């Protein structure tokens, strides 16, 4: 199924194919979608369908077999300082304090260290980590580690924020708290990326956070449907409109 791309979109994924070079196993089959400015887009699909591979292609960490990714009218050909990535497994450096881990996000910025520290402290405060600046990651819970990872990703004010199942390794109460924290931080236009793309296997999570949802098929993976989530925020998970949207997506998987 082909989807018409908005030529004015901020992020465009255009006819992306990916095949593992040695095995010739086809993973992604003609993936196309876009994301507009100040839009939260989620990508969901069956386990093992290549969601994380697709996100890494968007990030410029993996090269697609064919097709291209365009960010703000510039093709992504490799890692970019305009793109930040939040990993599922936190990816913090254990020998650095939480503050130092966040300051890594500002390494490419031409500014004095005291300014980096001020910006990093402010972001840690926004993510409710005041008092833990000098602690090391091994002293933190999983939820707090991911808050540090999010602070590091957001501190550079990236144009594109990519998140690879950022809440999947957390218990549900912690994940709910962190999802709320992310939504609150992203309300601030000073730190809001121009586009946010999140990979998730959790349909309810995608409906709670997203403006649109790209639903992928099983391998070889294609786009089954793109769903607009036009539910007023904050979203009540128990409301009829929320449940109807969740059920709509479940029915797409079942078809």
Entry keywords:
single chain; 255 residues; alpha/beta; Rossmann fold; 2 domains; six-stranded mixed beta sheet; four-stranded antiparallel beta sheet; 7 helices; 31% helix; 23% strand
Q: Can you characterise this structure?
A:
The chain has helices at residues 51-59, 98-103, 113-126, 142-154, 172-185, 203-209, 240-254; strands at 11-19, 26-35, 39-44, 66-71, 74-75, 83-86, 160-164, 195-200, 212-216, 223-228. The chain has 255 residues and is of the alpha/beta class. It folds into two domains: 1-82 and 194-255, 3-Layer(aba) Sandwich (Rossmann fold), CATH 3.40.50; 90-157 and 168-193, P-loop containing nucleotide triphosphate hydrolases (Rossmann fold, 3-Layer(aba) Sandwich). A six-stranded mixed beta sheet has the order 6-7-8-3-9-10, with helices on both faces. A four-stranded antiparallel beta sheet has the order 2-1-4-5, with helices on one face. The chain is globular. The chain starts with 10 loop residues before the first strand and ends with a helix.
Which architecture of the largest domain does the CATH hierarchy give at level 2?
Answer: 3-Layer(aba) Sandwich
User: Can you tell me the CATH class of the largest domain?
Assistant: Alpha Beta
Number of domains: 2
Rg result: 18 Å
Residue share in β-strands: 15-25%
SSE run: EEEHEEEHHHEHEHEEH
What's the CATH H-level superfamily name of the largest domain?
P-loop containing nucleotide triphosphate hydrolases
Low-pLDDT runs of 5+ residues are: 1-5
Strand order of the largest sheet: 6-7-8-3-9-10
Q: Share of helix among residues?
A: 25-40%
Largest sheet: 6 strands, mixed
Cα distance spanning the termini: 14 Å
Total helices: the number is: 7
SSE-based structural type: alpha/beta
Q: Please, what is the average pLDDT? A: 91
């Amino acid at each position: 199924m082909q989807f018409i791309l908005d030529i004015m979109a901020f992020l465009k994924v255009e006819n992306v194919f990916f095949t593992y070079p040695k095995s010739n196993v086809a993973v992604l089959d003609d993936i196309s979608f876009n994301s507009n400015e100040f839009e939260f887009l989620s990508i969901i699909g069956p386990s093992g369908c290549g969601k994380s591979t697709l996100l890494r292609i968007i990030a410029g960490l993996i090269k697609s077999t064919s097709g291209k990714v365009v960010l703000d009218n510039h093709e992504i050909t490799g890692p970019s300082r305009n793109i930040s990535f939040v990993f599922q497994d936190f990816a913090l450096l254990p020998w650095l304090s939480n503050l130092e881990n966040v300051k890594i996000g500002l390494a490419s910025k031409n500014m004095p260290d005291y300014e980096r520290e001020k910006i990093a402290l402010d972001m840690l405060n926004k993510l409710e980590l005041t008092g833990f600046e000098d602690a090391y990651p091994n002293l933190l819970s999983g939820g707090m580690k991911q808050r540090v990872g999010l602070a590091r990703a957001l501190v550079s004010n990236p144009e594109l924020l990519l998140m690879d199942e950022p809440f999947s390794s957390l218990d549900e109460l912690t994940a709910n708290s962190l999802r709320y924290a992310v939504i609150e931080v992203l309300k601030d236009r000073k730190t809001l990326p121009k586009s946010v793309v999140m990979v998730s296997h959790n349909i309810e999570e995608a409906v709670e956070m997203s403006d649109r949802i790209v639903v992928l098929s099983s391998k070889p993976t294609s786009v089954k449907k793109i769903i607009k989530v036009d539910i007023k925020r904050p979203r009540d998970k128990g409301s009829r409109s929320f449940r109807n949207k969740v059920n709509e997506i479940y029915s797409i998987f079942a078809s």
